[in-house]
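Practice record 12: protein with phosphoric acid mono(formamide)ester.
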Amino acid sequence: MANGFLQITDNNDRNWYTALFSRALEIRHSFEAGRKFHPSLEGVMLINLFFEPSTRTRVSFESAEKFLGATVLNVNLQDSSTAKGETEEDTLKCVAGYMPDMMVIRHKREGFPRMAQDVTGIPVINAGDGKACHPTQALLDVFTLWERFGDLEGRKILFLGNLSHSRVVNSTSRLASLFGMQCHYCSPPGWQKQDAPQGSIVETPDNLGDYDVIYALRIQFERGAGDEFSKEEYQQRYRLDEKRVATMADHGVIMHPAPMNRGVEITDGAADGEKSIIFHQMENGLFARMALLEKLWMGGGSC
Ligand code: CP
């Protein structure tokens, strides 16, 4: 039976994640060797409920569930009875009545996935809630860095861009810190991470030689970002472009959670250049989520 809610906090056990990363890497290698099916969730029923748009999280969860042999039900909320005025809470209770073993939920409201678990009593994996958290993005991000660098202790990561509207920066910086990484933050005034520790703020992204990772973030236009200053001003002062990439360390890598606003927070040259591991990062979403589902289902502990 699955354990409950995935919440990344500062108190978590690094070994729990390291075991998950080892399994994700094992699964990745098995795919590379041509073995994709790992039927550890046969007989398990999962429901995916995305109240907010998604490509990567939704498709990689569904793929992960199917490669693990689970029975998968995707609720198309655009065609659901919420359009007829049913409350989302009633929709949740209704769906839960069809006996899923786990649910994967994304919602624009902070705390909605946790509330869904409390209301239904069914284990829920948080696939992103408002500006608060995106724990499985953190898993795939730190897994990608662990795969690349091995020991992450003391490695430096710079989160760049629209930090105040980003749930990714909250979750990924927490997990990166748990692995001993030094997190730094660079954003325009007004888009700062509110709880960034003293000394972690970087004024400009014009000298990136100190960092192992530059993590560019999407400007969250749908969450109200973007009115504060012009696109041109942002591009000039903060966009990750070829000139700024040229200041990076030889071994430095570029990440982005995607979807990318190409040309706005990152140029094509930076996104597709030799330092970018963005598409590898996306692929790892499948393997990290397979390892997570397996671990939660087999009772590997909630966190
Ligand atoms: N990174 C991420 O969550 O992408 P989607 O919104 O496409 O799922």
